[in-house]
Design brief:
Layout lengths: L12 H8 L4 E5 L11 H7 L3 E6 L17 E2 L6 E4 L10 H4 L4 E5 L10 H15 L2 E5 L11 E4 L14 E3 L4 H11 L5 E5 L27 H10 L19 E4 L4 H11 L4 E8 L11 E8 L7 H15 L15 H6 L11 H19 L6
Parallel strand pairs: 1-2, 1-5, 2-4, 5-6, 6-9
Antiparallel strand pairs: 3-4, 7-8, 10-12, 11-12
Helix pairs in contact: 4-5, 6-8
């Protein structure tokens, strides 16, 4: 298959060189912020003389921190520039006295297209900070690796807003990060001075494996495009006592637990005849996270057709079957506010209410997704 040539925002210096000329830039980035030749955006802007400092999201500027790890402000060894943490005790916002030293703030991170992935909220906080200080926000746009043909999953209900879901968007939210920035800038009344450096060569039906680009993990537990696809659905396991495969070579492609019968689950999933995926019994021992150093029995998802595969529905059917079959299954205890973590992931509490019917649930969400799609279409750039 001929791979499609795609040029992300950083690959379009004919646009950004003149835009950044003479400006002091602060950059929110991580290891996935690279050009086609795999040069870091931070290095490119540092060599151009524009970069004054960097800001670290979850997982760190170099992508070496695990989920939830505390990140401190520090000095970058390679550039000597300060790196300010946006995922630590200092909070998610950028202090005005730091923004006052800059002409503009830039963002370049490969997003994964999932509502509960935190980088898009790091961007939203930065946009609010820029609006408050009268600074320009520049987004180096990147393709949505899942493609952006149809939103899927649920549309977040406002009462379940959290750090893994600030706004009423879909689980598979169907926008590039630049389109998302345009959408929230207007609909959430942020109204910052926003510039999106567009992608060239990408269309909405194009998934990452269609392109000639190299995959760089946006975070430690999304090592491959397949883990990215599965994440939309199997991330729901984070809200339960099932391992989501962290601490293994295949995070989010495998789920399991010591008490599971993998052959029974695989047999049940095969009967559903879900599109674009096959299931295999597997056994794994996580090196960290849930069930560290314990033998788990589980299921591995093997994607056979990325365009037919329905990751959210697949993950939900898995959770629902395991809950209804295994007495050892449980959801994580609710927070001090009485909300279960899986409710935050789903953006609603239908799953934990006790009268859950998966078919009726998906039908209701389908109507909400259709309305959501109409709301986001005006912000499409491709």
């Amino acid at each position: 298959m001929i791979k499609r040539k795609v040029f992300n925002g950083i690959d379009r210096p004919e646009i950004w060189i003149s835009l950044l000329k003479g400006k002091k830039i602060g950059l929110i980035t991580n290891a996935s912020g690279v050009d086609r030749e795999l040069r870091l955006t931070s290095d490119i802007l540092f060599e151009s003389g524009n970069l004054s400092c960097m800001f670290s999201p979850e997982h760190g500027v170099r992508g070496d921190k695990q989920a939830g790890d505390h990140i401190d402000t520090y000095t970058d060894d390679l550039t000597g520039l300060p790196v300010y943490s946006l995922y630590g005790s200092g909070g998610s916002h950028i202090k005005p006295e730091i923004l006052d030293t800059l002409d503009a703030l830039a963002f370049d991170i490969q997003d994964v297209g999932a509502r509960f992935y935190t980088y898009i909220y790091t961007l939203s906080f930065a946009m609010e900070d820029c609006a408050a200080c009268g600074k320009e926000m520049i987004v180096f746009d990147r393709l949505n690796p899942l493609g952006s043909v149809k939103p899927q999953g649920t549309v977040l209900e406002p009462e379940f807003a959290s750090t893994i879901g600030r706004f009423p968007i879909a689980t598979r939210f169907n926008m590039t990060v630049g389109e998302y920035a345009r959408f929230i800038n207007e609909t959430q009344n942020i109204h910052c001075q926003l510039t999106v450096i567009p992608i060239d060569g990408w269309t909405r039906d194009c998934i990452f494996t269609d392109t000639d680009l190299s995959w760089v993990s946006p975070s430690p537990n999304i090592p491959t495009p397949d883990s990215n696809f599965c994440y939309i659905g199997t991330c729901l396991a984070e809200g339960t006592n099932l391992s989501e495969g962290r601490g293994t070579p295949h995070p989010f492609e495998m789920i399991g637990a010591p008490w599971l019968d993998p052959n029974e689950v695989v047999c049940a999933m095969k009967k559903l005849d879900l599109p674009g995926v096959k299931f295999r019994p597997c056994h794994f021992t996580p090196t960290f996270s849930k069930y560290a150093n314990e033998l788990c029995h589980g299921i591995q998802l093997h994607i056979t057709d990325h365009r037919e595969f329905l990751p959210f529905e697949t993950g939900l059917y898995l959770m629902d079957h395991i809950r209804n079959t295994y007495s050892s299954f449980s959801v994580r205890k609710p927070s001090s506010k009485g909300i279960h973590f899986i409710d935050l992931l789903l953006g609603c509490n239908d799953f934990t209410r006790g009268d859950f019917c998966i078919e009726s649930f998906l039908e209701r969400q389908g109507k909400k997704l259709a309305e959501y799609e109409e709301r986001i279409k005006p912000y499409y750039m491709y």
